[in-house]
Amino acid sequence: MDNVAQQPAEDLRRWLIDRVAGYVERPADGIDPSVPLGEYGLDSVLALAMASEIEDHLAISIDPAVLWDHPTIDALTTFLTTA
Fold first, then answer.
1. CA distances from 34 to 2, 3, 20, 47 (A)
2. Which residue among 63, 64, 65, 77 is buried most deeply as judged by most CB within 10 Å?
3. Domain span at residue 51?
4. CB-based contact 49:23 (threshold 8 Å)
5. What is the pLDDT of residues 12-46, one digit of tens each?
6. How many domains does the chain have?
């Protein structure tokens, strides 16, 4: 995951917030990165799409289960930038 480590965590967090906002049709400023994604309505279908988008953006391969194992944007950001 060398490509991920090169992207600052705050940039990745902002990118993830924007993606989640788009998937759940809410403004980005209404997405709290400490709230579980499921509380915004992110279901398994959206999680698959988001995992694919993360893979494309970061040029990595991830299991979609990562979104359930790290259920908040903060947790996901930490995982992606430290794994």
1. 25, 24, 13, 17
2. 77
3. 2-82
4. yes
5. 999 999 999 999 999 999 999 999 999 999 999 99
6. 1
